[in-house]
DNA sequence: GTAGGGTTAG
């Protein structure tokens, strides 16, 4: 047991993330990939691997698959450790862990612990001339004729060393491949692996996967050895081109040819699976690597950290931190940045803050990316004090700024409603040399002015955008429309909308939501103008609004059409759509329709937790409802309760309705509107003294109110 | 000069 490389948390993950618990972790390794299933293969023999033969069928004959090699081992050396032997703090465990228990047996290795050795450089005295020559090649026309012309000027014969030096200094991939092919035709020396590797690296910059693959096949044909550097270049190029199946295919091929990946190739592949969101496979690979004696470095942990952040897996992030500590791996700047970003993804601002402090204390200075992550996290969390303190520190420490960080600061100001600070920043950007405001900056400012209801400043920005030719994007357009709608400046709204369409803005569901919400408080001519805009963005919505106005429309028809609209709408825009449509119905005095829509919204799960019940209290939660929807929900509730009182059914002691305090920047004054509606109904709900936005009524008050209403109705 | 792996915006 002493030799086991697993830590307590490993156990947790080996259970959570082993791809198939029938197979103990560390053995059978069935990847499930979109196109096919395959099994990792590697050689376990002591003899060095043979150079790659030419076809994969030959390969399989020569090298048995890993699964085949491991079969006898897996049935003899593995056992499940009884639960009592488990380390403490593994409360998440539901199954006994599986691991190696016979340390005298060799562990099957999935990666080579030895990194690929680089050939040492010898000094080339012709370096100046050759670099100058390479620069000429870089700068000349891409046509083959122009290139050939410059080639004539080569200052020294293209020996192996000279050619390599030039190849290393070529930048556009077109030039690299031309030069590579030329060197080949010169036939002065055999083209070794390093020539292919250098060329591939340049092709990777240009994302030319197909050419890289052709080169690789050329190597196979010419019996030039593919080494770890070749494979990692191919794999990362496939990854950057989003050709993940290709990346996996080449990784698989490595083992088949008997070449063991080293840690660079291995972590590149970890990243491939991480980018595919295949957490189980990554953890399985990770654990198998660890079981092979691999001590992962900061880069590998950065891959894991990013993956867990994307997966929103907080336990995963903690695991990465603890694993690094256990293995004595010091996080570097990139690891900190990745983990901070991940903390943001899982919404843990407090942990992000302490991680940042730990980083600064350890003597690592934050860069633009670090600060961008942290600023965004504080903004999203509405941690105004921390955000402003951080900003002060950035200024006094002279920490680096770039325009993404500027824009993120602006967005944070929008999130926190910091108008003056945003204006200051925006001016700084205008005055700066490298961080001029772009469409993001303008959008952030439009957001700030829009939610602060500062129409004039928002329109001034719009004029600047038109004059300066800054791109107006769909979010900026949405902010303007919200703001102009609330100010009832419908002609300006139409102008902005038409301008945006002309500039190529594609209206999305949020933009339609804004138009819908403007519709809900428009009358007369204005209504028609806004409807005309909405018609251009989403004609189906306009048809639906017309349809629900018609008295003859049946509930069945509304239901069908509403369902179809929701299906066409992105998930996050569905509730706002329903809210607005309910408001529109109420404003047109088609309250019956409003009730139908609320009913359907509830059925389709747009209002989860609208009603909550405990033995003592029933609560109506209308925080995420619009004013009209909240009124509708209250009426519906009162109707239900009335029936229950009449039938003398059991009722709790307390009734409450929660509107929220209405402090959010998008709040439409729901608490006061709700209070007004309660008064109109003369319902016995009172604003709670302890909690803003909570309206409470006792059973006795409610029952006597219901009874007096019934009496009045029958009288 | 250094043939290969990881991190920033609604």
Topology (SSEs and partners):
Layout: H1 8-17, E1 30-32, E2 37-39, H2 56-62, H3 66-76, E3 78-80, E4 98-100, H4 127-139, H5 144-151, H6 160-168, H7 173-186, H8 193-205, H9 209-221, H10 228-240, H11 244-256, H12 263-275, H13 279-291, H14 298-310, H15 314-327, H16 333-345, H17 349-361, H18 368-380, H19 384-397, H20 403-416, H21 419-431, H22 439-451, H23 455-468, H24 474-486, H25 490-502, H26 509-519, H27 524-537, H28 539-549, H29 555-568, H30 571-587, H31 591-603, E5 611-613, E6 617-621, H32 627-646, E7 654-658, H33 670-681, E8 686-687, E9 694-698, H34 699-714
Parallel strand pairs: 6-7
Antiparallel strand pairs: 1-2, 3-4, 5-6, 7-9, 8-9
This protein binds one DNA strand of 10 nucleotides through helix 6, helix 8, helix 10, helix 12 and helix 14.
- Tell me the total number of β-strands: 9
- Give the CA-based shape: elongated
Poorly predicted ranges (pLDDT <50, ≥5 residues)? 1-101
Q: Round the Cα radius of gyration to an integer and report it.
A: 33 Å
Quote the CATH topology of the domain at 611-714: Ribosomal Protein S8, Chain: A, domain 1
Q: Describe the biggest sheet?
A: 5 strands, mixed
